[in-house]
Amino acid sequence: MKKAFVIGSLLVVLTLSLGGSVASKSADGSATYEQLKLFTEVLSIVQTQYVDEVAPKDLIYSAIKGTLRGLDPHSSFLDPDSYKEMQVETSGSFGGLGIEITLRDDVLTVVSPIEGTPAYRAGLQTGDRIVKIDGLVTKDMQLPDAVKRMRGKPGTKVTITIVREGWTEPKDFDITREQIRVQSVRSADLSGGVAYIKLRQFQEQSPGDMAAALEKAAKTGMKALILDLRNNPGGLLTAAVEVTEEFVDDGKLVVYTEGRVRNQNMRFSAHAKKSYPTLPMVVLVNQGSASASEIVAGALQDWGRAIVVGTQTFGKGSVQTIIPLSDGSGLRLTTAKYFTPKGRSIHGKGITPDIVSVRGRTRRPRSGRSSRDARIKGDARPGAQGLGCIAFAICAAPRRARRDGE
Asked: In angstroms, rounded to a whole number, what is the distance separating the alpha carbons of residues 277 and 300?
């Protein structure tokens, strides 16, 4: 009797949460109600006939997870513990491996290891597929669950089983967890008036760190800039906007979002107090440049503010909204998609460089995007040789860093 009451109450709650009584619903609402009846019917059968007794809360949580898993790789349900865990992701300090992951074709995939972290030192690479975590198969595992299993007390070990393109069999990586403190900005003077800034991740402090690095470079005679976004998995949208507005004119659009709900249709424009809107720039990207990195690269490319050099970026251009729920859990729900100022969709496509550079070979993209300075040569690796060639190019022809007609 108690179980029947639970099921009946659930149906009432779900119906009301969808906008009111059945009598007030349209044909679509009636169809939804019929499907909810099917759901509660299955739930009732499971509760009364499944071989083991399962708590109603566990059944509901599993059902919600299944619902969100069917939407897209980035939407997920966060139980109360996972919701608390999520809140430390952008703080810049946590215990774990230092790796950004996503789901691609329902397989846990490495977006990028963060430079200087255990995952980076272990040799994990963008595109690696994680098939096991401590021997547990990751098939059907949600992102929050995977993150939770990889994080832990500093000094403890976790075994990640990786499948990589070109390998004939999986390989285990035994990695020791550390307290991850990500220094988001690293800078260097390449001489000749060329500054180099590596942006590892978009965190709360990144815009301030970026501004400080630029100010320091300006005092030493900066004439051109190489902004390195390779293996930057993204982070906070607000940080990406604030970084971009250092380099574009006040009032120019940085990125906009479009979703089904009106409040998800947003536009983010530059509001620069002190910026460098004419500074010649090269932006370095690769397959590990994702999300916020793609927003920055796309905006600077659209406005002709930088030559983008490297390989096609990851293509993570959707907006996830964290929605708290009444029991301390939450939803991580895809609610919109990002578009560059010129209306290019990032999601599933990425940013195509102006100059494609792979291990010392440079070429124009097959899409026909014009290369605005064919003299930029060398590879896009961290070595000084490639950076030196790029530095020479943008110093020798600073005006070429702007698109024709700008």
From this structure: 10
Q: What angle do CA 80, 86, 87 make, to 5 degrees?
A: 100
106 is catalytic: no
Our answer to whether residue 134 is catalytic in this structure is: no
More reliable by pLDDT, 108 or 274: 108
pLDDT of 270 higher than 60: yes
Q: What is the count of structural domains for the chain? A: 3
Q: Is residue 66 part of a domain?
A: no
**Can you tell me which residue has the tokens 């403890």?**
156
Q: Does 133 reside within a domain?
A: yes
Task: Look at residue 119 and tell me if it is in a domain.
Answer: yes
CA distance 90 to 180: 11
The count of other CB atoms within 10 Å of the CB of residue 243 is 29
Give the separation between CA 193 and CA 63, rounded to whole angstroms.
Answer: 58
Has this prediction a pTM greater than 0.90?
no
Task: Determine which one of 79, 302, 373, 379 is catalytic.
Answer: 302
Catalytic option among 76, 145, 316, 373 = 316
Closest listed residue to residue 298, CA positions, set 318, 315, 275:
315
Q: What is the pLDDT of residue 389?
A: 52
pLDDT value at position 26?
55
Same domain, 370 and 389: yes
Q: Of 4-13, 145-154, 207-216, give the range with the top mean pLDDT.
A: 207-216
Whether 302 and 385 map to the same domain: the answer is: yes
* Amino acid, single-letter form, for residue 136: L
For residues 344 and 385, state if they share a domain. Answer: yes
State the residue range of the domain holding 48.
Answer: 2-54
**Which of 82, 291, 318, 357 does the annotation list as catalytic?**
291
Percent share of the chain, pLDDT over 90: 52
Tell me the average pLDDT across 284-301. 95
**Pair 311, 173 in one domain:** no
Examine the residue annotation and report whether 316 is marked as an active-site residue of this protein: yes
Residue among 201, 200, 193 nearest 219 (CA): 193
* In a shared domain, residues 136 and 156: yes
Considering the domain architecture, whether residues 392 and 259 belong to the same structural domain is answered as yes
Tens digits of per-residue pLDDT, 342-371? 999 999 899 999 999 865 455 555 444 443
Establish if 326 belongs to a structural domain: no
Round to whole Å and give the CA distance between 77 and 57.
13
CATH, residue 130: 2.30.42.10
